[in-house]
Amino acid sequence: MERKAVAAYVKDHPFLFVIEDGRVAEIHPIGSKKDTCVVGEIYIGKVKKVLPNIQAAFIEIRPGMECYCALSDAKQGFFTCKAGKKPLCVGDELVVQVKKEAAGTKQPAVTANISLQGAYCILSLTDQALGVSAKIEKKKREEIRTWLSECADTSFGIIVRTNAAALTKEELLLDIRKQEQSFQTLLDKAKTRTCFTCLKKAGFPGSAALLGLNEETLTSLIVEDPNLYESFRSYLESERPKLLDRLMRYEDALLPLHKLYSLEKELERALSEKIWMKSGAYLVIQPTEALTVIDVNSGKAIAGKNEQYLNINLEAAKEAAHQIRLRNLSGIILIDFINLSGEDERKALLSAMRAAVASDSVKTDVIDITKLELMEITRRKANVPLSEAVRKAGTKK
């Protein structure tokens, strides 16, 4: 698979587009409005309310900005000021990290189990597990587990990411020790700072999008804007040096990068409700507060026989998987296919969908097809959906 990343301005805002085999697979707005909190930022917050009946607390991280926090995520936190003897009390000040950005009517969510994410590993404060990405080949995964035995004395939890598969033992352990030192420095800093201090900003706006890119499969990172190029170069020099040789500056003034790859049309399509497929059939994608519904319609496709319906459904499964990843949809997803008949068709469709979501770096589970012939899918929440991210970025329509 040929995978490249393209950073360009579309509608006066920078985006990072991940292109796989000539098709846009992911879209990441770079940066957001200044008045929003961003996933990964770390603050010293103050507990404003504790609600045992819903097992939640509300923690203020900026004056007037209260965030939801599950009690299970707060009681074992790093406290800078304790107001009472209970595990969590109103007035307590503790270090929290933005877990989810505000979406719709929902407030941002934070957790006291703060973590630092690097290209090769994730360190967490209260989760003491030592783990390795399941996407790493089994033999290599077991080898890395033996390497981690040298980190048994650590006070942090460690998860080794997929990118670490190409590292030597020395390189991985050096990266872990570097992360540990950064983490301890942050905690020491928290002891001397006042409430509402931002201990860690989101950093270079494009870094979050780059973290999920596999170094082994990324062929090029193309950037057009000179200032954006310098930002990427500085970030890669300090955090991802192995990607530096793939960073390229695009300088054709006659054919801008967004025109070369039709990025404006790709963005508009990723935000539209209706998606046409080659067969003439189409999908209607409708996110709601509780779940996302995808309806498959035969449209202009020639249908009538069971075999024709199955072919449309198989095409729709592949396109639905693509759109779920492209739009960063998460939570519960229901897909209403057309004219399912027989157990064999259901099995074929489930198998096709599971194969289609396998390339998604975000955990996606294809559950089953219900008695109402709705396919059930769940996808881990990883940041906000693309539509919400675009709105927060302040992109012009």
From TrEMBL:
Coiled-coil annotated residue ranges, if any: none
Cofactor: Mg(2+)
Domain RNA-binding protein AU-1/Ribonuclease E/G: 115-381
Entry-linked InterPro entries: NA-bd_OB-fold, RNA-bd_AU-1/RNase_E/G, RNase_E/G
Gene3D superfamilies per the UniProt record, alphabetical: Nucleic acid-binding proteins (2.40.50.140)
Keywords on record: Endonuclease, Hydrolase, Magnesium, Metal-binding, Nuclease, RNA-binding
Domain of life assignment: Bacteria
Pfam families (alphabetical): RNase_E_G
Protein known as: Ribonuclease E/G
Organism: Sellimonas caecigallum
